[in-house]
Amino acid sequence: MGGARFSGGSGQGGFDASGFSDIFGSMFGGNGGNVRFSTSGGGPSNLNDIFSMFGGAAGGRGGASYGGSRYGNPYEEPPTPQRGDDRKSKITLTFRQAVKGATVSLRVDGKQFKTHIPAGVKDGQKIR
Q1: Cα separation of 77 and 97, whole Å?
Q2: Of residues 4 and 97, which shows the higher confidence score?
Q3: Who has greater pLDDT, 108 or 24?
Q4: What single DSSP character describes residue 18?
């Protein structure tokens, strides 16, 4: 009667946590008799619901759910960065800027950009 029940799916044994009712009662302000947790078996269980009872997500893992990635599937790779369009512009540097490097402002296709010119840049060199 009462106590918290924890059970696994697919024929896995359960766990009767009725002895912990005083702990759950002090945490949730009740007698702890209504706490139930079970899994359907298979892969890792999603513990977000039980962690939300404690006031947060699964261990504060920066948006990732327990047993999974922030991308939804626990086996999913994060998206690969995509290359942007190349921007082309010509600028004139002083000798000192070319030798020491500098941060310069460029206007390309009507948009203003700031970029760093590395030290030792050569005439006609492409930079990233």
Answers
A1: 42
A2: 97
A3: 108
A4: G
CB 114 within 8 Å of CB 103: yes
Model confidence, pTM: 0.34
Q: Using DSSP bridges, classify how beta strands 102-108 and 36-38 pair: parallel, antiparallel or unpaired.
A: unpaired
* Alpha-carbon dihedral 57, 62, 67, 70, rounded to 10 degrees: 120
Task: Give the separation between CA 102 and CA 117, rounded to whole angstroms.
Answer: 5
Q: Where are the domains of the chain?
A: 4-42, 84-128
And the tokens for 78? 């994060």
Bridge pairing between strands 102-108 and 111-117? antiparallel
Strand intervals (E) in 1-128: 4-7, 14-17, 36-38, 102-108, 111-117
Question: Widest CA span of the chain, in angstroms?
Answer: 85
**Token reading at 89:** 């512009």
